[in-house]
Amino acid sequence: MTGLPDEVELGSGRSLTLRELDPGDMLDLIEAGGSAVSGAAASAWLSYAQMICTVRAVNGVPVQMPASKDEVRDLARRIGNEGVMALQPLFFPSPEQEDVMVDNAKN
What are the tens digits of pLDDT across the range 9-50? Predict the structure, then answer.
């Protein structure tokens, strides 16, 4: 994933500061996932957890990179539904958004 904004403003006035995960972060996330990344739903869990773990601060208050499944879950709860809804288009674009991205890349 490239081109992640530095910050996402939520309608409620909250903000999420983002940072792209580097390869070391991804390895840490895989280790933190434990059994969640070895089953049939591993790809879905890892994609969702990657999105959650790009959040490095909520309202300017830093958050640490989660080191366990429970910490990933806690961060997801802290981000909340509104935050997840704001992050999803950045990681899982709609077909229309993908078409625009392809057109922009061609130009």
Answer: 999 999 999 999 999 999 999 888 887 777 777 888 899 999
Q: Considering the entire predicted model, what is its pTM? A: 0.81
Beta strands in the chain (DSSP E): 7-9, 15-18, 55-58, 61-62
| Number of other CB atoms surrounding residue 101 within 10 Å | 12
| Residues 6+ away with beta carbon under 8 Å from 55 | 16, 17, 18, 63, 75, 79, 83, 87
Closest CA to 65 of 9, 15, 26, 8: 26
Question: For the segment 59-98, what is each residue's pLDDT rounded down to a tens digit?
Answer: 999 999 999 999 999 999 999 999 999 999 999 887 765 5
Helices 69-91 + 42-53 axis angle, to 10: 80
